[in-house]
């Protein structure tokens, strides 16, 4: 019983802390631009009834959502 308590106390005191780092200044603006571009791409596709921006059919949805996902993924690294 004492060994388990000792192991628990050493485990709880040796917590890991995230390394202090600086976020690059270009990260947030680039992510926001990608989010806006992805949204504009999808809106253009819907408003043009699938005729614009590229003649690739429903793959335009994948392209637009892909750009949105890249922008959202970049925001995960923003501190």
Automatic annotation (TrEMBL):
**Membrane-topology annotation of the record:** Multi-pass membrane protein
Q: Which UniProt keywords apply?
A: Cell cycle, Cell division, Cell membrane, Membrane, Transmembrane, Transmembrane helix
Q: For this UniProt entry, what is the primary localization, expressed as one broad class? A: membrane
Any one annotated GO CC term = plasma membrane
Output the superkingdom of the source species. Answer: Bacteria
Task: From the UniProt entry, list the residue stretches annotated as the region Disordered.
Answer: 1-21
- The reply on keyword Heme is no
Localization in the cell = Cell membrane
Query: Please, one GO biological process term?
Result: cell division
**Transmembrane segments annotated in the record for this chain:** 26-47, 59-78
Q: What does this protein do?
A: Involved in cell division.
- Give the family, as the similarity comment puts it: Belongs to the CrgA family.
What's the protein called, per UniProt? Cell division protein CrgA
Give the encoding gene's name.
crgA
């Amino acid at each position: 019983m004492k060994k388990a308590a000792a192991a628990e106390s050493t485990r709880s005191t040796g917590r890991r802390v995230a390394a202090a780092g600086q976020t690059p200044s270009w990260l947030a603006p680039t992510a926001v631009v990608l989010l806006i571009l992805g949204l504009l791409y999808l809106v253009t596709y819907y408003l043009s009834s699938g005729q614009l921006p590229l003649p690739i059919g429903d793959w335009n949805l994948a392209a637009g959502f892909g750009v949105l996902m890249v922008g959202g993924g970049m925001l995960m690294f923003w501190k």
